[in-house]
C-alpha cells in the first residue's frame, strides 16, 4: 500500500480556487490509483507554531539528545516516508502563505528528511519519488519577463533537491485576477490538465 501525502495550505478554505483544483486532481487520482491511500494535512486546522527561539531551542535539545522519535518530529517523519506528495497553496506575495513556510521549517530536519554523508555532502533522505505543487496565481508569472520573480515553485523545486525527491511537478492556473483574462476558461483548462496529470503522477 503506498501513501500520497496531501499538504493543504489553501487559506481561503472552500472559497479557494487552488483547493478546488487540488480536490479535482485528487478525486481523479484516486479513481486512477485506488491502491494509494491519500492522507491530508490541513495547515489551517493544525496551526503549527513558527520556530520562535524557545521552539527552536527545544527542537535543538531533542535533536542533540538523539530523540528523533519525539512527537514534535512526526510531521517530518510523515513527509520523509510518503511515497508521493501533493502541496496545494495559493500564490501569495510571489511565493506562498507563511503557514506553508512554517510547515517546511518543521519538516526540514537533519537525519529525517535530509542529511550529510561521511564526506560532508548533502544527501536527501525522503522517500517520495515525486512532489506536485498545485497553485493558482492572480497575475502571470510564467512569462519570460516575470518568471524570475516567481519564488514559490522555484523554492519548492530546490527543496526537493535537498530532500532527495527526484521529480518536482507544477500544476498552475495563473492570471486569474487579471481583468483582461477569462478566468473561467483558464480554470477549466487547468482542471483538464489536472485530469491528465492524475493518470501519470
Ligand atoms: C495575501 C495575498 C497575497 C497575494 N499575492 C499575490 C502575488 O504576489 N501575485 C499574484 O499574482 N497574486 C497574488 N495574490 C492573488 C492570488 O494568487 C490569487 O487570487 C489566487 O488565485 C488565490 O488563490 P485561492 O483562491 O486558492 O485563495 C494574492 C492574494 C492574497 C490573498
List keywords for this structure.
globular; five-stranded parallel β-sheet; alpha/beta; two-stranded antiparallel ribbon; about 200 residues; Rossmann fold; binds flavin mononucleotide; 7 helices; about 20% strand
Describe the structure.
α1 runs parallel beside α7. 39% of the residues lie in helices and 19% in strands. The strands form two sheets. A five-stranded parallel beta sheet has the order 2-1-3-6-7, sandwiched between helices. A two-stranded antiparallel sheet has the order 4-5. The model has no long low-confidence stretch (mean pLDDT 97). It starts with a strand and ends with a helix. The chain is globular and about 55 Å long. It has one domain: Flavodoxin domain (Rossmann fold, 3-Layer(aba) Sandwich), CATH 3.40.50.360. With 201 residues, it is α/β, with parallel strands linked by helices. α6 links the parallel β6 and β7. The structure holds flavin mononucleotide.
